[in-house]
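Justification of computing resources. Each target in the renewal requires a structure prediction run like the one illustrated here; the chain below, 159 residues long, is used simply to show the kind of job we budget for.
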Amino acid sequence: MSDLLHATTVRRLIRATRPRVFAAFSRAEALEQWFSPSADIAVTVLAFEFAEGGTYRFRYAMPDGSHPTLGGAFTCIEEPARLAFTWVWEAPDPHAGIPTLVSVALHERGQATELVLTHSQIPSEEIAARHAAGWEATLDHLEDALWHGALPPPLKWHS
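Resulting structure tokens:
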């Protein structure tokens, strides 16, 4: 069955350090500022335990009044270089219950960070293309939030 699954990869050079980019993914209050594919779509973090095995749950407020919800679990956290998490839409989404995987790698490029996001285990090319467009727009919001200082500073992970 794995030969029937699809993936999409989005690469972005972000004008921020790896710790700042990593922090944007690691804190609920930061995610609510940027984790959406459109300025017309608000995201609310319903649950967020940023630890390997920890879970998250987000609800989006769409312009048409619908509220799609998704959740998953963190499968890998390697601060500040990598994280991975499952991605599962909830009913009534037509793709509800289909687990996919998102992996984010962060590479230092001077004072910038190369972000490589791969969304895999997607059941069709059409869904993969939709997710690619969504991730491109979402990363636009991440860049904008980092550039304009809208996100909280990184936490001190180690003493």
